[in-house]
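Re: your question from the hallway

Yes, I did run it. Sequences:
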Amino acid sequence: MFEKFLSFVNTLGRFVIGFFRASGDLILFTAQILLYVFKAPFYINETIRMSIEIGFYSLPVVALTTIFSGMVIAIQTYEAVSKFSAEGAVSMVVLVAVTRELAPVMAALMVAGRIGAAMAAEIGTMRVTEQIDALSTLRTNPVQYLIVPRVVAGTLMMPLLVLIGDAIGVCGGYLVGVTKMDFNATTYLINTWNTLKAMDIVSGMTKAAVFGFIITVLGCYHGFKSQGGAQGVGQATTNAVVSSSILILIFNYLLTELFFKM
Amino acid sequence: MKEKKVRISLSHVAKAFGKKQVLKDVSLDVHEGESVVIIGGSGTGKSVTLKCLLGLITPDRGSISMTTDNIGMLFQGAALFDSLSVWENVSFVMLQKKHADRDAAKKLAIQKLAQVGLPAEVADAYPADLSGGMKKRVGLARAIATNPEIIFFDEPTTGLDPIMSDVINDLIVDCVKKLGATALTITHDMNSARKIADRIAMLYNGEIIWVGTVAELDKTTNPYVRQFVAGSAKGPIKMEVKAE
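Structure:
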């Protein structure tokens, strides 16, 4: 019995030490990135290339996600508010839900799956094939060359993606409202416009920037630290997507608390 | 005769990973213009020694000094950047400079590729399109692109057929001589070691146990070196066949 207890304490101890070691490692890695963001040389071409990859090529998946989210919210809201003859609230709920929550969170989860995984796999492969070591021997700092452009691009592009996602999501609600619920198109748009507050857009875009930072830092971190060949790269990819998805949801709550404290 | 300047110096270098002491006490000097090859079996610490020299791993004890930071390195798997073309790989350092002249960089890359026996047409190809031997040659072209004073070679002939291995060995000797560079190679390929080495050092159990010229290699009475050179399973070197 005592031996079992000791074994449990041993396992728990290992887990706690492992958790704090990994957290400390991640914090140091992030600090290193933040330091190099402001330190020359700046790899502008790499940053532009990554911005196109993250911003432009993620547009279709973000557009699809937000348009259907907007449509679903419109239907569900209509179902709920029609019982109280408050159908006019549909446009308002769609706008608030899309700009504050759905567009940033759904876009971030999609980008985590698309970009976070790709970054972990690419950098992880570079690690196990010694390409990152090769960079060091070619007088190039791997963090400055590989990581900083990705993190800068992710942090800058996500708010733009979400801004476009906001517009597309609201359009999704509009389409359902006008075609399925027989709302007057002009009235719907006027209601939407009158409900719109700068804070809704700003909070969503701020969340997006934080999510972009989380996705790219974790994607790069897991790739950079990967070991052991193909299996290690696969594990890094999974860890990148899972950890960034969890952190996105946690930070979404924290930022919502911060912006809309009751 | 005047003693040549020491270019690379390892002094009592030790490195452990967890409980495993990989390097116990490695000391070795490599002189200007000299080509030294470190031989040794798998797991004896050759790669760790090289990584310590490159600054990729920090040793626990001891000191390492090099007289220059203008170095070149040929990796075991060539380690070419997949996303860049062959010429961009070769001229990588030049392209990272502010306002880099891409035409001049490409010209330099083609010249370096010619030096390792590759035609200009290869310049626009991507690493994925190349065979193992061609990748090694491109890796060599990249290693010599900055006219380095010190070049490191990590298992330069591993994974190549005997003829291509000989071609790579010849190229290494040729490039090192033309540049007047100091070279340090790690390998377990004795044919390669004999061809490219001025001096050979044997690493065993985390220590340099023997250093000598190629001629001395064949006359040595050191049982570890004799067993390794003969490639015999019988002798003082015991292979670990079960996990620790």
